[in-house]
Amino acid sequence: MRLFTWSARRILSAHKQPSGGRREFWGWLNAVFNKVDYERIKAVGPDRAAAEWLLRCGAKVRFRGFDRWQHDYNGLPTGPLGRYRIEAIDATESCIMYRGFDHLEGLEHVEEIRLNKCIYIEDACLERLGQIKTLQDTVKQMTVVSCGNVTDKGLIALHHLGKLERLFLSDLPGVKDKDQTVDRLQAALPRLTIELDLA
């Protein structure tokens, strides 16, 4: 995967396209990486398919019962169907986007999600997270940092994550009424601890 990305960048720089062309190419490529293959999900199960999606997009996963984060797509462990269950997702600087979020359906053990510096994360992504029944019952910790397309609306949608215990928010310029947003989350989730570093 890294070799392909490096090669694509070399090809682009050799053609000296205007920066808009490069941006469009990477947007297209990232959209391809986020495409959901429902047949693959059926074949290998939701955890394996989601891990493949996340790593393809530059994120990391940690499997239940393991301390080490998995970041190498080619190094994903193999074994019987359902042996490796995703417990944590670190999407820092990844290209995950809304169109790939169907990969999260059926994940039953995710306790932590980190969304740091994710340029494609927007309100619709957080709303989608809140709609996934299995995540409503498992996610305990979330981090949303430097995601410029997230607003109060997206954060409020996290109130559907009924087991959420800790939420860290930082550098979110789209959040305009942090006090009201925090109050609404706190009212819906009394056990939630919210840590803020918002202007």
From TrEMBL:
GO terms for molecular function: adenosine-tetraphosphatase activity. InterPro entries: LRR_dom_sf (IPR032675). GO terms for cellular component: cytoplasm. Its EC number is 3.6.1.14. This is ATP synthase subunit s, mitochondrial. It comes from Danio rerio.
